[in-house]
Write a structure and sequence with these properties.
transferase; Rossmann fold; four-stranded antiparallel beta sheet; S-adenosyl-L-methionine; Alpha-Beta Plaits; alpha/beta
Length: about 300
């Protein structure tokens, strides 16, 4: 069996209309890709940002018994879109599409003794701390620079018997990493129910679910307060980080270690300044010339 791909390049406002058009014409799946190599900031959980110009691709099953009239399909699609909308097509050989994305993931080395490994691959170093992850579960795979920076910090921090907060947990990768690296217990929270489920699944995959609580913020507040954590890590965005300063100070004990990420270069000074009343920001780390991590300790009392 062969598969026909129809690629249509449109501006962002036309993406949903184009998706629906391809599906109405029998596409078995529709994917979205960047048409102009435009960088996107890592989204908040639950958000789905799009590029300004998007390649919308519909995949069609093309069998010998029921071949597709490619010319007619493209002609109709063209008639439903603005003039001069770019449309191309090609054919693909049969494969297992629903898991073909797995080919693009490789193990990620965080430190000499700490790796993130897709669950279907063998760890390069069986003696290392190997965090097994299904990247399809949610946001947070270790590939993004801000996630890597947090994992790197966790790998360099003494977490032995520490209570850790993973605030904005996404896939749970940071909380699970903390447990594998020696933390006693992790409290994780996220505003998206999908992230809560993904964190539970990845914790179970790594055998640490019994030492982790994860819930929506209101559930987290009920369970955690008035406890205080030894370590806090938050990989979200600059705006939420600055709005959470006082809350983070209440959630952490004096001299607790912390790391913040999801910050681009233009925001570093503002975020650092916002934390000076409650925290000592002692380190700034950069990755890919754009993304920064701030870390340090909570002030004493």
């Amino acid at each position: 069996m062969k598969w026909l791909q129809i690629h249509i390049t449109v501006d962002q406002p036309l993406v949903e209309q184009t998706e629906q058009l391809l599906l109405s014409l029998g596409a078995v799946s529709v994917t979205l890709d960047d048409a102009e190599d435009q960088a996107l900031l890592e989204p908040l959980p639950g958000e789905t940002p799009l590029w300004n110009k998007v390649i919308v691709t519909g995949i069609y099953q093309n069998t010998e018994d029921d071949p597709i009239n490619t010319h007619a399909l493209i002609a109709f699609a063209t008639s439903q879109l603005p003039d001069s909308t770019p449309i191309t097509h090609d054919e693909l050989e049969d494969q297992v599409w629903e898991r073909s994305w797995m080919d693009y993931y490789e193990p990620i080395q965080i430190t000499d003794t700490f790796w993130v490994v897709p669950e279907w691959l063998e760890p390069p170093n069986a003696q290392a701390v190997n965090l097994k992850l299904d990247p399809g579960l949610a946001f947070g795979t270790g590939n993004h620079a801000s996630t890597f920076l947090c994992l790197e910090w966790l790998g360099q921090t003494d977490l032995t018997d520490k209570v850790v907060i993973d605030y904005g947990c996404g896939s749970g990768i940071l909380g699970v990493a903390a447990l594998l690296l020696g933390a006693k217990y992790v409290y994780a929270t996220d505003i998206d129910p999908q992230a809560v489920l993904a964190t539970q699944q990845n914790a179970e995959l790594n055998g640490v679910l019994d030492r982790l609580f994860v819930g929506l913020p209101e559930e987290f507040n009920q369970v955690f307060k008035p406890k205080q954590a030894d370590v806090l890590v938050a990989n979200i965005l600059a705006g939420p980080l600055m709005s959470l300063v006082e809350e983070f100070s209440q959630l952490t004990r004096p001299h607790a270690a912390f790391a913040l990420a999801g910050i681009i270069e233009e925001q570093v000074d503002d975020v650092a300044a916002a934390y000076t009343n409650y925290f000592h920001v002692t380190d700034r780390a950069k990755r890919e010339d754009t993304w920064f991590r701030l870390s340090g300790t909570r002030q004493g009392e």
